[in-house]
Amino acid sequence: MRVMELRAETIYQGVERTMSDNVDDVTKGVTLRNGNSWYLSNNYKKPYSDSDSNSDIKFRLDNAEETDNFVVKYHGKTYDISGLLKYHPGGRKTLKPYKGFSLDRVLAETPHSKAAHHLFEEFVLENQSEYQDIEKLINWNKPILWQVSSLKNRYWEWVNLPVNRPIRLFKSNFLELLTITPWYLVPIIWIPISLYFFYIGCTTDISDSVVNSMPQIIIAFAWGLLLWTFLEYSLHRKLFHMKPPPDSTTLITLHFLLHGLHHKFYFQAPFDAQRLLFPPVPAIAAATILLNLYKLLFPPVMINFVISGTMIGYLCYDLIHYYLHYGAPKAETYLYVMKRYHNYHHFSHHQEGFGISSKLWDYVFGTLITLRQLIRAIEW
Asked: Residues that bind Zn(2+) 1, according to the entry (predicted)?
């Protein structure tokens, strides 16, 4: 699959006017969206009026603010993709020339994955009955965590088809709150803990002065950083992308809670600042298990520095992951490449590209994604 990164030479090819296709017919009345009490109101702002000439329409479409409705046509259906622009993997400027036009030809010339097309259908302003087939398997008006196991053999297909809608996991407000993590909470929690272990290592574990022991300290700390990159890769590949048996209620629910919701809710999980980061309570529980494992693997003189390095590695991973979804890195920077890389993983290469902060172990284990060469850099 190719994510939405259109070659520069195709941007203006095959653009078809939709003025004769009644783009404004979606403004008539109230339309139910996604079976989840979402409605298109009668106050929907039309991008042009019925009395406007084609030249006036063209001018208004070309000069509209980005906050205006961004209406396009595809296969005879009308879409408002204003909510997609900011998060479009190919950058918002890739889409900008198509406002008010048909995407039929350009999407035919630039193939997209099944996941990308499924997400695109979230923005349709008309009947979604065909698209809704698999999404009707869940009652979106109720907490969904305990529903996903009922999908059984449809779960794997369902979870890899992203949607754009609000979610609630638990009925309990307290449990729901535990799934929400502001980005700044991650450094607030993990930097002091990492510094604490580093301090304990310096004051109790080394027999010589800190200055004389600095080479050993640096090596142990670096080991911790390297170990985190391996944990990041292996957990992502072996645990988070483990396909649960269709008859296992427990494993389906666990998979969805650990990672499935991250792929399913492309906006409301990956692009929601409150859900993207790993919640502190389960993270601290996992860190406790890892600490006890490290005690079995490393000598006392190293252990606290290794733990400190691992925690800093985790901190960097979580914040990098957040930035890859939310940020707009400059072209050809490290994070620019990693953002493209991670978008490929989300939309097409679900079984490749497991490194998030680094590609290191993708190289080692043969799961590297080769990014397509672009004529023009993406601007998010």
From this structure: 236, 241, 259, 262-263, 321, 325, 342, 346
